[in-house]
From TrEMBL:
<dbReference type="Pfam" id="PF09234">
    <property type="entry name" value="DUF1963"/>
</dbReference>
<protein>
    <recommendedName>
        <fullName>DUF1963 domain-containing protein</fullName>
    </recommendedName>
</protein>
<dbReference type="InterPro" id="IPR015315">
    <property type="entry name" value="DUF1963"/>
</dbReference>
<dbReference type="InterPro" id="IPR035948">
    <property type="entry name" value="YwqG-like_sf"/>
</dbReference>
Amino acid sequence: MDVEVEGKKIRSELEQFSLPIIKLLPKAENAENIWSSKFGGKPYWPTNMEYPESKSGEKLILLAQLNFEELPNLAEFPQVGILQFFIEDDDVSRRAFVLRLGSNRGFINGRRSRRILLLPACGFSALFRSQ
């Protein structure tokens, strides 16, 4: 059995299950404004919304914030809006963050430990606060 030939055969069979991806490359620079794409830091947050909290009432921390206006156009994704990923503080230091697409219930082991939110388009006219 030729390993290279078998590998190519398996790859061609698996390609039908592939999904499109984007690759994010962080840069060591400050975000331009509160609604810029970033990893960590202070999130954009509308004043009329309750900030995400854990089941115990602790504020979740921002893992990542993606502003679709700053990203290349992606099929089946919005052109505007902000996608945010929040996790409990202990998620960062004690266990891996697992993203389950299509689920925004945010429960791991019965605890509310993560949230994934899509906020509408924003700008200077939007009211906001940083947490």
